[in-house]
Amino acid sequence: MNKNHIIGVFDDEDSLMSAVHEVKEKGFEIWEIFTPYPIHEVIEAMGKKTRFTFAAFIYGFLGAAGVLSFMYYTAVIDWPINYGGKPTNAFPSFIVVTIVITILTVTLASLFTFSLRAKIYPGKAYILPDARSTDDKFVMVFDKSKQSSGSGDLESILLNKGAVEVYEKELQPQI
Amino acid sequence: MYKTEVRGPLILGDKNYRQISSDIIAPIDQPIPTWWKAVFGVSMLATLFGVYAIYTTLVVGIGSWGVNNSVGWGWEIINFVWWIGIGHAGTAFSIFLLILRQKWRTSINRAAEAMTVVAVGCAALFPALHMGRVWLMFYIFPYPNTRGPLWVNFNSPLFWDFIAITAYLLISASFWYFGMVPDFATIRDKTTSKVKRAVYGFFAFGWTGSSREWLRYEALSYVLGGIAAVLVVSVHSIVSTDFAVSVIPGWHTAVFPPYFVVGAIFSGFAMVMTLMIIIRKIYKFQDYVTDSHLNAIAKILIFVSLIMGTAYATEIFMAWYSGSTYEMFTFFKNRITGDYTFQFWAMVVCNAFIPQLFWFKKVRQNLTIAFIISLLINVGMWYERFNILITSLSKDYLPSSWTVYSPTWVEIGIFVGTLGMFVAGVLLFFKYIPMIAISEVKSILKVTSINKNEKTNASHE
Fold it and tell me: Which domains does chain B have, with CATH numbers?
């Protein structure tokens, strides 16, 4: 079996973070970090950013414009009905439906974006190096082939920084 | 910045991460208890009765109800508004407290959201049945049809209502589900049973808890939180416009939207309290749902109860101040005194006076009394909707069309059926879904036990 990944298992957030800073300083490249709950320092350290809020704004804008023009088309252009002589373009009362549909659009579109970008969908073959990371362990994973210096150094750094276990493993997708 | 020294520790009992997962997953792994089967059986009987009542409604028609020409909206709309009010708590709870960064929400929001989804489902049943020919319900969708195409009336509050409830059901269900994905993954990886691993694994959507997933997860939860906060306020405002836009005395008031929204949050929070007291008692979750959690809910209930009292007083004052004979009659001759005196005062006492008992620390700490008060609030909220609907409709402008309304067994049956559905839904939630958001509780463990860590583990500071 080709053990191509190094896995460091930590017991708590603090020792994980000190190890993350140390290995980054020494120039090792972290493949991914798995934690039982969101930790902002980890996300920052991995250097990842998301344009999620911007996407949500676009969805909201499109949703609002779409539903307003739809109501304008149906109530003014396609089939205008005279309600007691009131204007057919009843803009103030269109706002209610616009708000609700905008919120619905943002929610559903954001959920699909999330599913697409975070790759979370039914029946996905996922890679979970250490199954304890959804319970109580904080797991740091390194791709062996991408490290410039030897893996022996890496192992000793991780253990020094409080890793409870360091081992090598081949990662395989599971369902 | 968000340390919770004022509120005290949020998780008691010196837990570690492993204990948190095992404690919360425990009810899922244990065999089904006898009380659960018994209560589920009773709730299914109630549901069956409801199904039979719905069957009668469909076969006989709306004529099987007690509604008549004057009182066109009876128990169905009372119950609709009541359920949708209860259904406001979950989203209000998790979203407002999420935006305000209140960490104590973490052990309660899951149950509140579950309750929301079930209650909104119950609520949606009533307006659908009230359409009379429910099989033609699709007429309300604005779709290009062969009748013109003739579009729906976008100016009608009844159409707004349909849109609002549909959107609310979809959004609260997806918000709830999306919060559960990491917890399903925890169950998948912890369970020893192959069936559970497969089932929860499917619902976990391949969640692993990697940093790329958490990054988007956090971003999505704030986007949804921010946008759904608007929805919580708008849905019940829209429900109130069903009434406020009409010209019936007692309905045509500007105070209705805020009054309805606050009332919805009030009944929802009371239901959250009822549920949390049950959950912590039966499943021994006292370490997660601590006394201080219930204390916080009780304090919110005092505050909201004061707003309710103010809203009632405002309505009465405006009836007098407007100088309208009909408004005066409705409030002074048909609510405060008159045929519906009991219902009016039941509403005022249950909603404005009894919750004031929470000012006393002893009442807040005595969970039996708190439980009874939380139930009474929802009784009071039911009477509030009764008051609004029945008093105004039964005696409006024309004395010759004054009538008395009483529900038939069919209407009572549908209500009993929704109660059964609600209890059954909540029981299924108790058994098959982690009742407390595991990953969220883990994320506050470090903050909440900061004092403990300082003593035992000074090297980290």
Answer: 17-141+154-447 (1.20.1630.10)
